[in-house]
Design goal:
Shape: elongated
Number of helices: 2
Distance between the termini: 28 Å
Helix content: under 10%
Largest sheet: 8 strands, antiparallel, barrel
Number of strands: 15
Radius of gyration: 29 Å
Strand content: over 45%
Length: about 290
């Protein structure tokens, strides 16, 4: 209904500019507006038909009308639509339920101990920042707490590197099976995450800042090796027989355009594995955001 009213006001304004500066209709505190179109013209009735005008079409006129409505798939009764009020037209501050998009990027194993070997160019992250979040909108800002998913893959493909458990809950560089040609070795970590984010829509642009801490519950970790044996057969080695740090905190920041495409950085000052592990590091990711 709001889009129809805005369309009507624009139409009236154009008519006034083209023909006359006179006021076509003035109603104080209208209860409802009904717009009816017919071959003769468009009739606008205000406050239950008590006041109405007919905007006649000239003979042979070709008139086209359109209407669009935008809704969030997560909108529920009693909550705003979950999108920025200055973009979607909901015009209401308050609590909102929404969802974030995806982050895909490269992840660096910073400060590697044990001689290094994990490669930034081969390691990547896939992150759904929040599958669902609840937040409070005010002005051009929003603060929210969400529940999301993160998957990081730290990989080495050079120098015949081979990751293996050290027998004491940690991870170390070891030796591949005898006669094997190592293709790759990788450490994978999966996390449930709780992002606490602040977003701000930059005035007079379609740019949006987002930043805040992320609490990670690292529920899964594994080691995988891919190699060719002495007979040239492709083989895989897999184990979960090591420990990781179960709770970590990251810091996240992103800048997106039109909530469609953007860039992000993500850093954790906390080690991925237990403190006594021969190989350990802190993760740093950088990449692109989609629908965020």
């Amino acid at each position: 209904m709001k889009s129809l009213i805005l369309t009507f006001l624009l139409f009236v304004f154009l008519c006034m500019k083209a023909e006359s500066p006179d006021t076509l209709m003035s109603v104080t505190n209208p209860s409802d507006v009904v717009i009816t179109e017919s071959p003769q013209g468009t009739r606008v009735s205000v406050s239950g038909g008590q006041e109405s005008i007919l905007i006649e079409y000239p003979d042979g006129a070709n008139v086209k009308t359109s209407r669009s409505t935008s809704r969030s798939i997560f909108n529920i009764p009693g909550f705003p639509c979950g999108r920025r009020s200055d973009k979607c037209g909901c015009g209401a501050d308050g609590w909102a339920i929404s969802s974030d998009g995806l982050c895909v990027g490269l992840t660096d194993a910073m400060g590697q101990t044990g001689g290094g070997g994990l490669q930034w160019s081969k390691s990547f992250e896939i992150n759904w920042l929040s599958c669902l979040n609840v937040g409070y909108e005010f002005s051009r800002s929003r603060i929210y707490l969400g529940l999301g998913l993160d998957w990081r893959n730290y990989k080495a493909t050079a120098f015949g590197r081979w990751l293996q458990p050290d027998g004491d809950g940690g991870v170390e560089w070891g030796t591949a099976p005898e006669g094997a040609y190592v293709r790759a070795t990788q450490l994978k970590v999966f996390s449930l995450q709780l992002p606490l984010m602040y977003t701000w829509s930059i005035p007079k642009t379609y740019l949006k800042w987002r930043m805040g801490p992320i609490l990670n519950f690292n529920t899964y970790a594994s080691l995988k090796g891919i190699y060719d044996d002495s007979d040239g057969n492709r083989c895989e080695y897999f184990t979960k027989d090591f420990d990781r740090r179960h709770v970590t905190v990251d810091f996240f920041a992103s800048l997106s355009y039109h909530s469609a495409l953007g860039v992000y950085v993500r850093y954790s000052p906390m080690k991925v594995l237990k403190d006594s592990s021969p190989i350990n590091f802190t993760p740093f990711s950088v990449g692109f955001t989609f629908l965020l």
